[in-house]
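Saturday, quiet lab. Running sequence design on the structure tokens for the scaffold JK sent over.
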């Protein structure tokens, strides 16, 4: 027999993780509550709810990114397929865009293994670790994910807000502290500001909450769905898909094989 412990129903009830959808959840819990219940199997406390909500909102949109363009161009070719257009935008999530929270979180986890036996590392210990990680990454020619931004070159405003919320809610832990030290070490190494960006700050908060890197990617995808739907709706009202196609056609030519 096939079983799923997430949800199910009968003629009289619909249940999610054992809770009755109508009697226990509707009009009593918000979307973040039920999202955590479905994925994690439990409701978040107020502090976690605020941090997760901030992560979802941060992920909604960042302009005409590759994912937004994929959504718009797919809708231009298949205007009846909202789901196809949104899916096209999500399918591009990976190590460069949209999936970077998971990559950054895994990098931090790996780096922090060096202090696994230290319950409350000092700033000096974190600074030394950050210097060592930067030196090793340079020697291995390995990029450190979660730092720097092509637009917010002097500091990502989303990071400042994430830091404030984490401090207010008591979740400013070892990973966020390490990330800030890593930003300083990386900036000194490359000779220009390499601020902790939204990806890195979300990864740090995620780990300080005790959540998995995969859950961080999931939150980014869930948040971005709303933004991609917005791009699809705008594409129907004020289309730019044909203009994008025209620009690409004007700037390209057929090459010889």
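Result came back. Writing it out in full:
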């Amino acid at each position: 027999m096939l079983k799923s412990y997430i949800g199910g129903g009968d003629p009289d009830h619909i249940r999610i993780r054992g809770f009755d959808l109508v009697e226990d959840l509707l009009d009593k819990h918000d979307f973040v509550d039920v999202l955590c219940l479905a994925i994690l199997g439990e409701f978040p406390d107020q502090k976690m709810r605020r941090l997760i909500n901030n992560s979802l909102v941060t992920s909604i949109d960042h302009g005409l990114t590759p994912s937004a363009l994929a959504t718009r161009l797919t809708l231009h070719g298949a205007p009846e397929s909202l789901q196809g257009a949104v899916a096209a935008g999500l399918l591009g999530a990976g190590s460069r865009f949209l999936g970077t929270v998971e990559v950054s979180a895994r990098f931090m986890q790996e780096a922090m293994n060096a202090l696994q036996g230290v319950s409350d590392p000092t700033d000096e210990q974190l600074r030394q670790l950050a210097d060592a990680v930067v030196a090793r990454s340079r020697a291995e020619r390995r990029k450190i994910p979660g730092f720097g931004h092509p637009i917010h070159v002097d500091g990502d405003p989303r990071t400042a807000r994430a830091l404030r919320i984490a401090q207010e809610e008591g979740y400013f832990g070892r990973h966020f502290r390490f990330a800030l030290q890593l930003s300083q070490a990386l900036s000194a190494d490359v000779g220009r500001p390499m601020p902790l960006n939204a990806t890195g700050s979300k990864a740090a908060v995620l780990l300080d909450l005790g959540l998995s890197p995969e859950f961080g990617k999931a939150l980014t995808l869930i948040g971005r769905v709303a933004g991609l739907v917005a791009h699809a709706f705008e594409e129907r009202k004020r289309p730019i898909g044909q203009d994008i196609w025209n620009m690409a056609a004007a700037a390209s030519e057929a090459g010889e094989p």
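Notes for JK: The chain has two domains: 1-43, 45-240. Strands lie at 7-9, 14-16, 19-20. Ask whether to fix the surface positions before the next round.
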